Amino acid sequence: MEDHETFEVDVNSLDEARHIGSLRWSVDPSEVEVHVMDEGKRLFGILGKKMHVALSLRSQGPDVPPAGTLPFLEGLLERMGLSVEPEVTGPDSIDLNGEDASIVIGRSGETLRAVEFLTNVALRGKEPGRRIRIDSGGYKARRQEGIEKIALAAAREARRKGRPIRLEPMSSWERRIVHVSLKDRDDVSTCSTGSEPLRRVVVSPVQKSGRGSA
Are 92 and 79 in the same domain? Predict the structure, then answer.
């Protein structure tokens, strides 16, 4: 229908934009998609900042996150003062893109994990058991690949030197990548040691000698 097509408007906030869309189409604000086209400027530095946005109805179906996911995430990022736009990349995955995509990652991905945690807590009552995974500019995929390479290098070093190799302190997510990367190998074993935030993985060679040790 023509009145379900995208239209543009100037607003003070994303919430105002969703409210306008909900009135136009008689839907819940969570069903309104907001795309920021121009963040605008403050007039003489004193008047409220206007954003130029495009509104459309959010498509619903099995390939999108639960209703309310994007509005919550957009509001959270707005309150953090970050210029980042969430993009749905799968039914349970969202990638953050924009000029502040690197800032939202934080040190070793800490800020990104906090954003993901808060989003899932907020949506816990809508679809229990479902988890939304949030990435930023493909950071997690790159970091996972890097950690897997570190794990393989540590396994080679442990075998070559015949002694355990202690990796740098990692988050629980990063440690899990190391364990999973090496779990099917019979020449090394892994374990985590230490306390947060200095908990790390130790990769140890497995002795294949037929003689057991007491």
Answer: yes
Task: With respect to residue 36, please indicate whether it lies within any of the assigned structural domains.
Answer: yes
Neighbour tally for 113: CB within 10 Å: 17
211 found inside a domain: no
Q: What is the 3-state secondary structure (H, E, C) of the chain?
A: CHHHCCEEEEECCHHHHHHHHHHHHCCCHHHEEEEEEECCCCHHHCCCCCEEEEEEECCCCCCCCCCCHHHHHHHHHHHCCCCCEEEEEECCEEEEECCCHHHHHCHHHHHHHHHHHHHHHHCCCCCCCCCCEEEECCHHHHHHHHHHHHHHHHHHHHHHHCCCEECCCCCHHHHHHHHHHHCCCCCEEEEEECCCCCCEEEEEECCCCCCCCC
In a domain, 28, yes or no: yes
Rounded to two decimals, what is the model's pTM? 0.59
**Domain with 85 in it:** 59-137
Residue 90 within any structural domain of the chain: yes
Same-domain check for residues 86 and 133: yes
Return the number of other C-beta atoms located less than 10 Å from residue 3's C-beta: 7
The count of domains in the chain is: 3
State which of 102, 137, 172 marks the end of a domain: 137
141 within 8 A of 91, measured Cβ to Cβ? no
pLDDT digits (tens, 9 = 90+) for 68-124: 788 889 899 989 999 888 988 877 889 999 889 999 998 878 899 899 999 988 887
